[in-house]
Design brief:
With 859 residues, the chain is of the alpha+beta class. The chain is built from 30 helices and 40 strands. The radius of gyration is 32 Å and the shape is elongated.
Amino acid sequence: MAAFEKIKSGISGLDGVLDSIRLGDNVVWQVSDIKQYMFFAQSLARQAIKDKRCIIYIRFAQHKPLLNPQPGLLIEKLDAGKGFESFTVAVHAIIKKRGRQAFYIFDSISELQAAWSADLMMGNFFVVTCPYLFELDTVAYFGIIRERHSFDTIARIRETTQILIDVYSEKDEIYLHPLKVWKRYSNTMFLPHRFDKNNPDNFKTLSGGLDTSRFYSIIESNKSIADEQNLDNWDRFFLHAKLNAGTSGRQDVADICERLLGADKKLNCLILDNFTARDLIAVKERMIGSGKIGGKAAGMLLARKIIENTNPGLSSIFEPHDSFYIGSDVYYTYLVQNDCWKLRLLQKDQDNYFPAAKLLKEKILAGIFPDNTREQFRRMLEYYGQNPIIVRSSSLLEDSFANAFAGKYESVFCINSGSLNERLEEFEKAVKQVYASTMDKSALEYRFKRGLSKSDEQMAILVQRVSGLNFSGIFMPCAAGVGYSYNSYKWHKDIDPAAGMIRIVMGLGTRAVERTEGDYPRIASLANPQLTTLTSSSEKSQYSQHIIDVLDLGKKSFAQVSLYELSPKLPLWYKRVMIEHDREAERILEKQDNKKAGKPAEIIYSTCDGLLKIPRFTDSLKQIMAIIQKHYEYPVDIEFTCNFTEQGDFLLNLLQCRPLQVGGFGAEIKIPCLDDKNIFFELSGATMGGPVKREIDKVIQIDPAGYFSLAYRQKSNIARIIGKLNQHFRQKNTVMLLVPGRIGTTSPETGISVTFAEISNINIICEVPYREAGYMPELSFGSHFFNDLIEAGVFYAGIFEGKSTKIYNAGFLGNMKNILVERCSDCSQYQDIIKVYDTSGTGLSIYSDLISGRTVCGI
């Protein structure tokens, strides 16, 4: 600080009253009319230009400009409508660029209230900007309109600023009442003062008598009825909206929608077509804080409303939802109040994008929530009682037509048992985990790759009661899964892609959206739910579900339980529907154990086959997705649970709905005729992301036998090396990767455990089998990992052993030079396992026709 250097305001009388404005001061002018603020802003600008100061006018409001273009004045025009984060980052960039001892005049920040729909966010902007200006020895003027903001917001501004002045006027006389002047004091400083605009150097202190009485009468005459001033602008808006809900028109609904829902314009148009003002106000009534509820919550509500409006009979099989929504403003306020904002700004810089994220994540996890937010959390938990709940991300960009963010952010289960304080602690920890997941590497890579690294990505949260039944201390839904209105994975000639498909599991749906170790969900085409690629009893047993994701109420935790362990706790009527026996294996086991006492062990697994045999269940899902797709005019994917009774009645809970990322919708590729010797592989079906016609520049091929022979602890090294190669090939190359077993698995023993960030620049991925090790590709369409591939435009092929693979010549490129060490000099010990070939100029190409289901890769 430059020893609190005094500067001239352009009004000598004002300088006398305040003992001068000093470098570092933020000056807030609280006025009744923008013209009052304009007078002081213009005086400072004239003086600063005269003194050859660097003075910048930050222009963003709709009101008349405070200053006109003139020599010596820099004008920076910004768009507050882009959101709190984008605007704040832009302002901080200007401050950083101009450096120390610059002067700033901001438009009335009251207009930010309208742009961001809440006083809270205007206050957050001031709280993070004012200290930065102070650090750089600047002088900054801000104007706010009196009685437009909540008492809480004004209190935050008063606490943060160095100078706060109330301004009143009558004719040519202006009255000033300093409310705060930091580190200065005189016997008259905090008394009201009067001066004449025509003679601004003539200040008179009002210390009593008729002048003081007149001043306070002017204050009273300027006051409006302020019964609602203890409310944020957000609450005042919805209070009026609620009173007028019965007469609301489409524009009124649009105004509510703009404040409440996500940023996806197409999604918002659908909401306007399906929701009334009362519907949206009911959503607001279940909100914690202000801001938007985000894409995931909006998609869930919209899907349910479309079905309710279109087919009330179908809607009757839905469980009623009782979700809560933590508004996006709570997220930013949490960052501001836990001193995370500097790190947030640093993380926006490209050089610090990943390093600063790690520090920010740690700080988010260690933060605390404000008391008023915690009280709202308590009230919500009292509503849910001791029912398990799930805390789910619902960011502004999530589940939109442009970006899915599938699996990028956390969802955290809360067992929600114990005392209210214990439940509150568990819940707050879960919310912090979701907030911190915005800084996970996979989420950062996703945003970076899609050009969203500088976007205003606010995190709202969807809180849902976990749908399910209590089976002797184990809580879970009868079944859960994901559904797709369009099936882009046509693995049999009898499959109609337009009928859609589901990926379903027993228990919690986490296993339906992730590729899991040694376990397989059931994939069913809704055109023919009983159709399966598995024929023998042993195949069904091997490629089915053996581990169930549940909530263990006794241990108060999410758990993965074997079906053998869970089976004794399940009622017979439930097991008849959901559990199958490998009778052939049981008979063999019985013969082996016929001399032993006791009953032979069961060989059991789940394919959800009994549920798929209920036509009303599969038909309902098919109808639901078809109706939503018709309204969206685009394929959709949903998440759902199903609970049923011994009598066969069932209810569905629609948990999520978003536009489905599909590749090559409706296009056709002509495949050239190649000699067998020139074909690397030829497939019938078992692909996703087509149609494709691409020449291949680089091939990365992992030798299955070599990978299998590696020690367990070394297998993860292969995934990390693939990640290094992925970064090396960030340039404009078409790269194909062939791996044994599953890609993206959690277990190196079933395949390659890469993250999506480690293969984000690879264009074609093929999974190949290795029977000796049990490596087998998996039909995983619908998992978050595969959504990433499709959304990123990655083509996938499963090279199975069987009819779908016509030709596979694993050594097709074996005569070419392995360039692994040239690209990764410290990887020589793995060059017998990882083969990297430069195929550019060889003519190696891949062709895949979605209509015929045929794929050929060759020269």
